[in-house]
Design goal:
This protein is an alpha+beta fold. The chain has helices at about 85-90, 130-145; strands at about 20-25, 40-50, 60-65, 80, 95-105, 125-130. The chain has a single domain (about 10-160), classed as SH3 type barrels, CATH 2.30.30. It is built from two helices and six strands. Strands 4-5-3-2-1-6 form a six-stranded antiparallel beta sheet. A hairpin with an 8-residue loop joins strand 2 and strand 3. The radius of gyration is 15 Å and the shape is globular.
Length: about 170
């Protein structure tokens, strides 16, 4: 999963629930097993234990977030652009979650960092979508499912054997 050495895992009490927005160093397509160079929003879909039997490490399935909205060419993505919703969700600018770019990532500090790194009590979890936004996301995912566009969403988590231990 990661080719850069051992990971520093976040504690179990920090694991984000589905529909959370997190601050993420999403890997690039050039280096899929390495944390990306830039911190950006990510949208959590699923959470799983990283180990079998379950332990204190978790995997998070997250969608790539970007400020490049591409509304005309990417109509099947999930976009948050309303200024009030941006404030509620603590997003700095309009964000498109690329629903074709979803990956299972270790819930580790190399991949997920707090937006306010100076705050020792802060976690990478920025906010959680309100119920009405979760319904919109659900409808978006259902339309994508009907159109056969959810291959990335259906990717299984990696095997526990491929993850480094602390």
């Amino acid at each position: 999963m990661s080719s850069h050495g051992e990971l520093t895992w976040w504690g179990a009490g920090t694991v984000p629930p589905p529909a959370s927005i997190v601050w993420c160093n999403f890997p690039t397509h050039l280096a899929p097993g390495v944390p990306g160079p830039k911190s950006r929003p990510g949208l959590v879909f699923k959470v799983r234990y990283a180990d079998d039997p379950p332990g204190e490490r978790f995997l998070v399935q997250v969608a790539y977030g970007t400020t490049k909205l591409k509304t005309a060419s990417r109509p099947d993505d999930f976009i948050i652009a309303n200024s009030v919703m941006l404030d509620i969700l603590r997003l700095p600018s309009a964000t498109r979650f690329d629903l074709d770019t979803i990956a299972w990532l270790p819930w580790a500090k190399e991949y997920f960092a707090p937006r306010e790194e100076s705050d020792p009590f802060c976690t990478p979890v920025v906010s959680t979508l309100p119920a009405d936004m979760q319904r919109l996301l659900g409808w978006t995912m259902q339309i994508r499912e009907e159109d056969g566009l959810n291959a990335a969403y259906h990717t299984p988590p990696p095997a526990a054997a491929g993850l480094e231990k602390d």
